[in-house]
Amino acid sequence: MRDRQRSSYRGRFAPSPTGDLHFGSLLAALGSWLCARRANGAWLVRIDDIDPPREVPGSAGSILRTLRVCGLEPDEPPWHQGTRAPAYEDALQRLRADGYAFPCRCSRSDLAANGGAHRGACVVPHDSGTAFARDPAWRVRVDDAVIVFEDGLQGLQRWPLAADGDFVVKRADGPFAYQLACAVDDAAQGITEVVRGADLLDSTPRQIFLMRLLGLREPAYLHLPVAVTAAGEKLSKSSGARAIDAHGPAPALRAALALLGIPAAALRQPSPRTLLRDALAAFEPAALPHARILAAPGFS
Ligand code: GLU
Question: Counting Cβ atoms within 10 Å, is residue 254 exposed (0-12), middle (13-18) or buried (19+)?
Answer without folding.
Answer: middle
